[in-house]
Please model this.
Amino acid sequence: MSFRKHRRDAQKEAARLAEPVREAGALAKKLGLDPYPVNYWVVNYDEMNQLIAYGGFQRRYPHWRWGMTYDRQRKTDQFGMGKAFEIVNNDDPSNAFLQESNSLADQKAVITHVEAHSDFFKNNQWFGLFSEEGLNAAAMLEQHAETIERYIQDPEISREDVERFIDAVLCLEDNIDQHRSIRDAVAGDDERIPRDVRSQLDSLNISDDVRREVFDEEWLDQVEEAEREAAKLTAPRKDILAYLREHGMYYDEESEKAVEMEPWQKDVLDMLREESYYFAAQKMTKVMNEGWAAYWESLMMGDEHFAGTDEFITYADHQSKVLGSPGLNPYKLGKELWEYIENVTNRAEVADKLLRVKGITWRNFSEAIDFEEVQQLLETDPAIHSVRSETLDELADLGADDPRIDHEMLDRALSGDESIDVDRFPWKVLSYEGMAERHFSLVKPQNRGFVRRIRRSELEQLSRYMFDDEVYDSVEEALADVDKTAGWDRMREIRESHNDVTFLDAFLTDEFVRTNHYFAYEYSRSSRQFHVSSTEYEQVKKKLLFQFTNFGKPTVVVYDGNFDNRGELLLGHQYNGVILDMKQARGVLERLYDLWGRPVNLMTITKEFDEHEVEVARRRGREPTPTERGIRIRYDGDGFDEHDLEPELEARIAASDVDYDTKPEEWL
Model:
């Protein structure tokens, strides 16, 4: 009976949401968004928590991690530390799940948020790295789940072995080359492990006489040296999972030696690696994607009044909690950056037109311009700003060729088509250009004064290549030519090509940091507590970039698959001033040993503090200076050894301050 009631409740909620879903999709397109089609599903509380645990999908392979995530989410909700309103997956079509207990205001917020996410999934090129040949993620993950379930149920394969193997692979799930497609990142021919020719001869059981006659020692030495040279890596390999798939073995506890991976192990590794590449884009664009969705949700729900009058307070409370959550908040940071980009682009468009007015140059700009007049001239046309059923004639009076009007929809509304309810949905009779003017960022109250704050250096840059600099006779004439779609157009361009690291690097400016009051903080070794370390934008940017480079995790790559000519694996942590968690690093090496089958090594750099120096620094109110030391940790299956790192190896793992390339042509 309770199941039937749940189904009835879900169907009732789905019927209630049919109009908001339809209208939100239409509004998103009016605003220039181009999302995948979205299927909306209404689910109950438990189903929502299960979907969150499964990363937004209904079926995943059997593993304890899902139960742990489910329990954490359930407790988070139960103790009031955060409620799950929705989840949407990157698929074509996308699938979004709405919790049936949400208020209508929350459901509308979720739907507008989802439409923007789906637009981002479809149009961001980092997501495109995985979906070059079409996308059906739900089918892929379901197939993986069924295959791994069959291996677990196979009487010839131990369930414990499958789970242990999955655990080992998951320790390395983010050690892929996320800047390349899954096919382009496959290990190359220069990465094969050299053959042990003498061991192969021993296995043939040939006589010593034949061996001396046919295979002399000098020839064997030459072959082995050639093999070792051929096996050297020409460059470190980021995709550790691909390298292990090609060259890894498995440590067999019964025989106590490395053996070839079983077919099921290679199959599982391939599937988990494929899933890592699928989810990589979401991890690489968290700030951009959530900020993008929060920006368009806010515009639709608030500025375009998609939230009804009786729903707005509930919605405002919902968004304030999302944007006001403590710590590094990707929703807040992303939304503020998108708004800043919009404002800067629109300001540059306005300044460009003003610098073409006769008598105005970058040198006299601040003195020659009446910024109050500029603000008034930029105000939205009243006919566009206040669209209602009784003002439709004013829109018609703008002319049949006015690009700001959706003339087909306006004609239908004027002819009495009741499906065009302009009092509830005024955007229906406007075009993209009309919507851009209606929501032009520089006329919003919170952005008044933004044009005035333009720097002299920015004006000089705009003027540098301006040849037709006396086009307009007046400020009014110049501002009439302002392209009010410039900000949105630029936002869509950026949405297509960037990830979080390049996004922050390109657009986190001194002006943004000062205006939005960002700062960097760090742990003080002398006071044993966190403190604000800097408000300078370079330091804030550096700290933020560290948070997002390589999913915010240490960059570890393969440096040698035949270290010390013993078939040992040598990994290197590309050090950027942030040390590894050594307990966690040792745990990963233990799991990695299972996938390599032979000893594994990890190079890194540690920081060591002299206790006397720490005490002196504490008394003098300063930070102690650490000593950096390169080390190599080796795990052989029984225990760990630590060795000083040779200078040439230490030089190889010393990365730049931020481990990425900022040349745009090399981002994709």
User: Anything to note?
Assistant: The radius of gyration is 30 Å. The first strand starts at residue 38 and ends at 43. The CA atoms of residues 60 and 145 lie 5 Å apart.
